[in-house]
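cache lookup: miss for this entity combination. No prior model stored, computing from scratch. Input as submitted by user K.M.:
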Amino acid sequence: MTAVLEVEALSCGYGPVPVLRDVTFTVPAGTVTAVLGANGAGKTTLLRTLSGLLRPSGGRIRFAGEDLRGVRVEHLVRRGLAHVPEGRGVVTELTVAENLRLGGLWRRDRVDARRAQDEVYELFPPLAHRRDHAGHQLSGGERQMLAIGRALIARPRLLLLDEPSLGLAPKVTAQIMALLRRLRDERGLTVLLVEQNVRTALWVADQGIVMALGRVVTAAPAARLRDDDQLRHAYLGF
Amino acid sequence: MQRFWFLTFDGLAAGAVYAAFALALVLIWRAARVVNFAQGAMAVATAYVGYAVASATGSYWLGLAAAVLSGLALGALVERVLMRFAGAGGPLNQVIVALGLVLVIQAVLGMIFGNGYRPAPAPFDTDALTIGGVAALSPYDIWVLGAALTVVALLAVLFTRTPVGLRMRAAAFAPEVSRLLGVSVGRMLTLGWALAAGVGALAGMLVVPTGLGLHSHAMDLVFVVAFTAAVVGGLDSPVGAVVGGLLVGLILSYVTGYLGPDTTPLAVLVLLLAVLLARPGGLFSAARARHV
């Protein structure tokens, strides 16, 4: 299987404080990869570095075979990298329809951008009823649907998802995870998923990367992480 | 009663200019979270350009176009050259840079054009027409009202109906998310400053012929009044800026008419103080529900 994302010896920090140290892993195409670890392990920093919001202090990021160094954040979505940031993916002042339009503005193919918007409404029927509602009127689950749906408009080769379950009821979380699985199976979507909720993440993921204090401790198939008691106790806390 | 109607019409015409000028302040506030204290001085500079072109070509309309275009350029320049770098140190630095810019612009204008008042002819008659024995709007007032309201309408269309308007709003509300969605936030910021300064330039051209005359300090009081109007409306709200502008125009017209022109600057400050004390968020800043 070809790798969509190859990360090699990636380091990053805020000022002199290193947060990511020597992070290396690959994300194969058409899979869901979960990034696990305790608070402060560097999961969110990893995603923010991958999408260019933070400048790495060392290492390489190859995305779809190309080096991402020096590529501006606003150009990454054109290359097929979509990032749904933690908890605040939706522009709450804009309506649902405007949020979705915004997701497709960069696309030259207006017809397909339009079709992609309609697909989001089909994928998430609750959003279709709330087209003209402002983002702040949506429930947490609807917001997450909107943020993910908007990212899908880019028809991404890789979707970075930061804590999609944050603040959501378990039932809603399960719906979103089931959807990720479906998108992977039906469309071959590749996802890099950061999750606090380890059980949920390992249920949906094909493989997991366990981080601790900015380093990758283990990378293994999700099934193995689920069954490895020692690892679970040491790093995942259940 | 006749006097009341006269003051009302007069206030609306003046208010339309305050509305446009307040709108320029709101545009920058929404885009960059900074009050552009240099807006008045920038508008004066572009008015000088406008009247220089007008007297060179003999056409007021060419002058008006030159003023608005130079406003767009000046706004973009100020953002790119000054504010972008000042902003790195926090919004207070931008305010101080703006105040410095006021001094620089006024000094440069004085060096080039001298410090005397220059005549600023109006394109239409400024004598009020009388309708049924009541002195109402002058042809120039009608032009001012029409021009200001047209700009407001055009901006509303730009922001709510066009892709670039959507980008500008998104960039202002959520810069990081917008970048992730492919919006060049920096470019939208430059565009926001350019638009605001263009609107400011138009407002300057509209207000200068109404007895102010062209002078490097011509817009000082206008700026304070427009700032008050923007605060009355809630700095965040374009609708608020327009309503605030018209409201402040009316109030000041009544104050000037019934209490005398000496009290006008005082009335502006009292109004500003009253709004800040009673409703610091302004009349139109509905407490927005922002869940995180």
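stored under new cache key. Residues 170-187 of chain A form the longest helix (18 residues).
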